[in-house]
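Chain A, query sequence.
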Amino acid sequence: MTWSIINFHRHTRLKAGKSPIRTIAEQCGFATESSFIRAFKQAYGYPPGTLRRQ
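Chain A, predicted structure.
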């Protein structure tokens, strides 16, 4: 996978676990938390909450 600025931002913010997923979604340009979760799952094969728990 090629790491774009947004991909790096997603992973960094999710791993830090300090911001709600809704906030990260908005910062990455998604209109809703659910659209972010769907796009993340399609790109990585698991939802963002799984990354946060790792």
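The CA atoms of residues 39 and 45 lie 10 Å apart. The mean pLDDT is 81.
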